[in-house]
């Protein structure tokens, strides 16, 4: 499951389970549609039960990489909610690849703290 909704200038994403090719296509379509009007926004990503995507999903993501890089430019902060330490570490390191985007990981029970961090200036 992959759900995306805009909440003002914040994109809220919930992901559970494993994405296959068709689900990845739908997820990327939803990301583009829901973020179309966001500028200098924030992203709250809740990884409920994350599993690595299937190979066809990875190919789908790479095929749309240029559009996704442009999409990431709409955001200045992203907070990941996850109880998987390895995913938190990878996500924060991923933030180094996107100039102007800061990614910070939180445990899933720290949602309110993550939202406060997203809403804080700087």
Fold-level CATH name: Transcription Regulator spoIIAA
Q: Order of helices and strands, N to C?
A: EEHEHHEHEH
Distance between the termini: 32 Å
How are strands sequenced across the largest beta sheet? 1-2-3-4-5
Share of helix among residues? 40-55%
CATH architecture: 2-Layer Sandwich
Main β sheet profile:
5 strands, mixed
Can you walk me through this structure?
This protein is of the alpha/beta class. The chain has one domain: Transcription Regulator spoIIAA (2-Layer Sandwich). The chain has helices at about 20-35, 55-65, 65-70, 85-95, 110-120; strands spanning about 1-5, 10-15, 40-50, 75-80, 100-105.
Notable characteristics:
5 helices; five-stranded mixed sheet; alpha/beta; 5 strands; 30% strand; 122 residues; 42% helix; globular; Transcription Regulator spoIIAA
Short description:
The chain has 122 residues and is α/β, with parallel strands linked by helices.
Write the layout of secondary structure elements.
Layout: E1 2-7, E2 10-17, H1 21-35, E3 41-50, H2 55-63, H3 65-72, E4 75-81, H4 85-94, E5 102-106, H5 111-119
Parallel strand pairs: 2-3, 3-4, 4-5
Antiparallel strand pairs: 1-2
């Amino acid at each position: 499951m992959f759900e995306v909704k805009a909440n003002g200038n914040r994109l809220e994403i919930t992901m559970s389970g494993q994405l296959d090719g068709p689900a990845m296509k739908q997820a990327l379509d939803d990301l583009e549609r829901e973020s179309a009007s966001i500028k200098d926004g924030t992203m709250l990503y809740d990884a409920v039960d994350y599993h690595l995507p299937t190979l066809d999903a990875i190919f789908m993501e790479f095929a749309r990489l240029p559009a996704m890089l442009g999409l990431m430019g709409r955001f200045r902060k992203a907070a990941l909610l996850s109880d998987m330490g390895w995913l938190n570490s990878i996500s924060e390191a991923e933030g180094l690849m996107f100039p102007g985007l800061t990614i910070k990981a939180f445990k899933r029970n720290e949602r309110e703290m993550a939202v406060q961090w997203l809403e804080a200036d700087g």
